[in-house]
Design a protein that fits this description.
The strands form three sheets. This protein has a six-stranded parallel β-sheet with strand order 10-9-6-11-12-13. By secondary structure, the chain is of the alpha/beta class. The mean pLDDT is about 90.
């Protein structure tokens, strides 16, 4: 039996204590967790512990290799599956957003956001559609200098934080976007973007709007979070960034509104203001159909998640072979 030791809580990952399904799957493949750091075969962590901590771990518990596993794009931004080795340190391995073995579909990790089926839209009250503040943006925290979050891969900035925030500000200034988040200047935010019952609260908010500015913070293959799924569940047409991330393997063209189709990106608001009710209904129903198809095919979702777990098992066996 291979024994793993968590260097942190591994919250929200397959290695979390409360993830019974994943833990049982590991156990079926001769992998279990131990509370004894010195008795383990492999350390598991979500973040790079740094050279000093790795040295301390080796001195205190022995020469155990370390696997960093995270589905969060900013917990680790290394683009290689193994960090540079130092002869005096344990081997350090990586499975993250960029190694291609965690996010293997647009719904592998965040399938929990696909819940009950959503009714197709038949008709919209035209006066409400034309007159209300039409867009919502959940921008959790205002970032004074978002350009500092630049992350370059293959000579391309894959950070979307700056684009997302600038779009929120531009839409706010046009009177089209209500922003939910903290630390926004001059009262730009109309409310917080988190609370104790956030899943239900977010749906209640979304249902008041027609469009949802829901770009991810990072643009990479299959990195698709709950943002677009929550938007559709709330019958709110997503405004998303769909270039370089494989989202069109799941969604048809001309379903969500693709920010990447507009340059400058702020031109998207002219498109939103001039969209007809018929086009809106057609686009939103295409999104809803994708959502409902996945809601009806839980086995497909389960297969992708288990394939991701198999990738973990194969990697652990490779590390320890």
């Amino acid at each position: 039996m291979i024994k793993l030791y968590r260097l942190d809580s591994m919250k929200y990952t397959p290695f979390a204590v409360n993830n019974a399904k994943a833990n049982n799957f590991f156990r079926q493949h001769n992998i279990e967790f131990t509370d004894s750091a010195s008795d383990c075969d492999l350390f598991i962590t979500r973040r790079n512990p740094g050279i000093r901590k790795r040295i301390n771990l080796m001195i205190k518990y022995g020469d155990h290799p370390i696997l960093l596993w995270t589905h969060e794009p900013r917990f680790n931004t290394d683009f290689c599956a193994q960090l540079k080795s130092y002869s005096i340190l344990p081997k350090f391995y990586i499975m993250n957003v960029y190694t291609g073995d965690i996010h293997i579909s647009n719904y592998t990790i965040y399938s929990w956001a696909i819940r009950e089926k959503v009714p197709l839209i038949q008709k919209i009250n035209n006066s409400a559609f034309l007159n209300k503040t039409r867009c919502i943006a959940f921008l959790s925290t205002y970032i004074p200098q978002p350009e500092k979050f630049t992350l370059t891969k293959d000579n391309r900035n894959i950070n979307l934080t700056e684009i997302r925030q600038n779009l929120g500000i531009a839409g706010y200034r046009k009177g089209l976007v209500d922003i939910y988040g903290k630390d926004w200047p001059n009262g730009m935010s109309v409310g917080e973007s988190r609370n104790d019952n956030w899943l239900d609260s977010k749906q209640d908010i979304l249902k008041k709007y027609d469009f949802n500015l829901c770009l991810e913070n990072t643009n990479f293959d299959y990195y698709c979070t709950e943002k677009i799924w929550d938007s559709i569940a709330g019958s709110c047409l997503p405004i998303y960034f769909g270039k370089y991330n494989r989202i069109y393997e799941t969604f048809p063209k001309n379903s969500f509104i693709d920010v990447a189709d507009f340059y400058p990106h702020e031109d998207i608001f002219n498109f939103v203001e001039n969209m007809t009710e018929d086009e809106y209904i057609e686009r939103l129903n295409l999104c809803i159909s994708v959502y409902n198809n996945l809601a009806d095919n839980r086995d497909r979702i389960k297969y992708k998640y288990q394939k991701m777990l198999v990738n973990i098992i194969e990697r652990i066996n490779e590390i320890l072979s």
